[in-house]
Amino acid sequence: MSNSPRQQGSVLVIVAGLCMILLTLAVTFLVKMRMDSQESIMLVRDAQARIMLVSALQYIQESSRLGWRDLSKIITDPWGDGSPGYETYGWTDVRDGSIGPRGPRYYNPTSAGDPKQDTLTQPTWWPGAGYPQDADGKFYNAYTYAVGSLPASGSRKWPCPGSAMRGDMYVEVQPRFAVRLQKVANPFYARSDEANSVEAKAFLDDPSYTTATSVGDLLKNIHFLDGASVLDGPYPNAPVKNGIPGQTAVSWIPFMNQWRSEGFGGLDPQPVSATLALAKIGDDTPRPTSANLGWFRIYRELPSDHDMDGIPYFDHVPLEGHGVFIIACGGGATKGYRFWNAADPGYSIDLEPVTAQNSGLFVDESMFREMRASERILWYRAEWTAASGGSANTVDHYNVEEGVMSGQFSTAGSYSGNNQNSWGDTRLDNRRVSFFGSFKWIQRLERDPVKW
Amino acid sequence: MSHPARSTAASMSLRSVRGNSAFTLIELMIALSLSMAIVLIAVTAFRQASQTISLMQRLSTENGMLRTGYFLCTEDTDFWNSHANPDYPYLKGHMSDPVLTNSGNNLDNKRLFAPVKFQVAPPGGIDFNPNWEQPNDARGWYRNYLTANPRTLIYDRSIGNKVDGYPLGHVMLDSAENSEVGIDKVIASDTCLPRGWAPWHLIGDYACLSTINLNYAGVSAPDYGQAVALKPDDPTLRGARPNLMWQLFKKLGHVGVFTYMPAGTISLIQCPNLNDTVANIKDASKNWCKGEIPWSLSRVMTSGPTKTTSLRSWLWWYPNGPDSIMTWTPLPAIVTCPTTAQVADNSLGNYFMGMPGENATVAMHCAANYYWSSASGGYVPADEAHGSSVPLYASDLDHLNGDGYYLSAGGYETEWTGLQARNMVALMYGTKFVAADMAATTFDSEAIIDSTTRDPYRTLDKETPGFSGAFTGNPNTTDYEQMGDASRWDRSAQTMTFWRQMLNYGSTTVHVPQNYTDAIIPNMTNKATSTPSLSTGIIRYRYRSYDKALCSVRVQDPTTGRVIELGFTLVGTTLRGARQHWGWKTEYDAPTIRKIGDLYE
Known about the structure:
Strand order of the largest sheet of chain A: 1-4-5-6-9
Oligomer: heterodimer
Helix content of chain A: 10-25%
Number of helices of chain B: 17
Low-confidence stretches of chain A: 77-83, 135-143, 183-192, 203-207, 209-267, 389-432
Radius of gyration of chain A: 30 Å
Shape of chain A: elongated
Strand content of chain A: 5-15%
Helix content of chain B: 25-40%
Mean pLDDT of chain B: 53
Structural class of chain A: alpha+beta
Distance between the termini of chain B: 122 Å
Number of strands of chain B: 15
Strand content of chain B: 5-15%
């Protein structure tokens, strides 16, 4: 039995109508979800950008003290020409207030008459001449920020004031000197009074040990959790156990020696690489899931950026020193490139020596600009200072135990603030300075600061 | 083969039958049933889809509100809207206004965003503002003892090996008080340093002298003056920073001034305890909060109490001393800091150490020759020195910058480290008020804001007792428990206290529907019953060098009663950065009569 064409058409209309309704609902649902997803992307990018603020601040802190070295130069001056990667003294040099970071004073023990003796020398990142010299060796100099002596625009290379750097953030496949989560033999320092405690003895392989009478004795009693003292074996090839049955820790004799000569903790933790050479190299290939998510840029302000003339617009606070930065935090995939090429408005080679186009990392201009337009960018301004607090973190970093303090180590780092030692002297460290430093203030900028 | 006639008749008969035929009842019922089933399925599907769409729409709306709330919180974190923004819906103008004179006189003008106008000196002059304070600048140094500093490198770079000398030894800058080692000896003692490292190499010039006192008149410190070439006779340099801090303190209160203080500056708060009522706070004669001082403002006592006088007497006397800069004169609306500061010298060796808290032991500590001590000498618990009714609230930025917990097995230090074991010490930025305050023509800040301004630490660890027992120096025993009730040092207990009390320091802003700030329950009177609400909250505090913000987003659907709350912590603009922002905002970007934050002439 068959229905008439009219009946069949009615059914078709009804079915089609219902289907359309359902389809519409489904499409609406999908579109709405898509919109939500799109809107959520901006939130994710905002969060990513905020993470970049922390990264940028840490970069500023780290690079205030890490040595700046021109890799193209061979170190020929072992006494320090200010360049070869020596530890530096802050963005505003804590010694004389000059433009940092720069290395230690020049010291040539073989030639007391060396004219550079005890001077602060020009860092390698400073192009050309004109860097302020501090030749008198005094502690405190009134240092005037000589604007005229700054490198000219176009020749400023990071970290010179007026220049900017770009930080593309991702996780490397294997960072240099990567370590692994492996329980290893961990030497710890056993002081006499600590060794007397029940807690400490539990970790000693020689519970009968009671008192250290000399530094050498102390070294002998640095023990591993499950192994012999480092000196028990035939030095320097003492076996290093890792505490895991069936496994043997990587032989790490160079680190052993480092520990022996330079401090504690050389054995902890264990490296990922099997050899020191591989550990040094690592693998800086970005992990795909971590790439193209966030970046930061840092611009180091010029004196003219804080001379209270209203240019840039936020310049109404008179600032001194050389540690004021504009931080651009980005959530997006442009890797921190700001300019497609030199024809972009506001371009300066000081801000971006290699543009996005020249980098070769982007397919074409339209793609780059689309990526740029969809990014979340936050601008901050921050002032770095060497003045820092102290307390536990500083203790961890600097503390040298009191037990061996006789003429050797400071105990001031052991205490957060005021204290008194056993003979009644005050030990105060209230104005700690750290070349890692901290930040006096961090300020969000409402608008594009132009130079970043 | 069929017959044509019969075939035709049969055909007609069939048509006749078909033409008169109809659905049988059963057919009809089946058809109707099927149709109904189809319709029912269709309606159900449609209804289901519709409900799904509605649910999706509601979820989408909630998600959108959560996202909006997130961005509101991030903006709040960066621009401190909940503490500074005078406009709707934040309405925090009172955080920059002076308080009425009868609303807690000791707290006059102490608001986080009170306007402070700094002067900029003419060329060659000295800017009296917080920005000259560079680490190399002696004016910015905290003028106290030098102690040995951390070794930065322990190997001699010239030979790439270990040192053949020793790191810097224990150093006391003040050779006048401590004859063991002074800065002069350090400089001369090249033998105690690694070869190739002069003292300034090892620790930095600034670090070496960072805690030196300025070479002020009346205190002989020739070594320091010579060492730092500090223009010792320049009166404009003397006391510049302490005076600046004092001015800021008077304007911003204890909470605000911390954002300008160099790290490590010790401050002291002295507050009444048993008499800590609003009425007494308003009574100058009973108000000891005027003893609040940035500790760097202390000065050498050339007269008055002797060094064995109790702390209470000293403080009580001191603000009225003939040379005191701590006047009680009411402040103008905008403080203009002077270019020539008064001398505010720092007494060598005057240090207070203690932890904030209602019953915290405040041990006063100074150099061996400068005890303010009880009969037993040494550390002076507050109760012992000052009576049980006068607890002191002392803190320093070391504790705000770090947790300060360092368990030492030594005998002498453990008292201290035990006292420092208050990991939850943080500086709270209070901002809360209620709608009723806004409705009043004379806004009374009352206790919530004032208490946070006056004594921000009390909110934390309030119930934690101080050191209450003698320390025997035996690390194998439970000596640490003798520092009061050990159970109350439990972190969880602290955390509970922290969370319970910090509710008083948060600010809630209802965005949808619009409502008064800090009205946690939105006013739905004039809104549709289905209107969802969105509110954001923020609690700010300073802890371990960070200005932190605890944010919360709350979305409520009145039709279902569904409440979604999202909480997160953000790090962004610091208080000082926010003050700079609002100073720029109100003076240049959107000029208003009401100035907020840092202003510069």
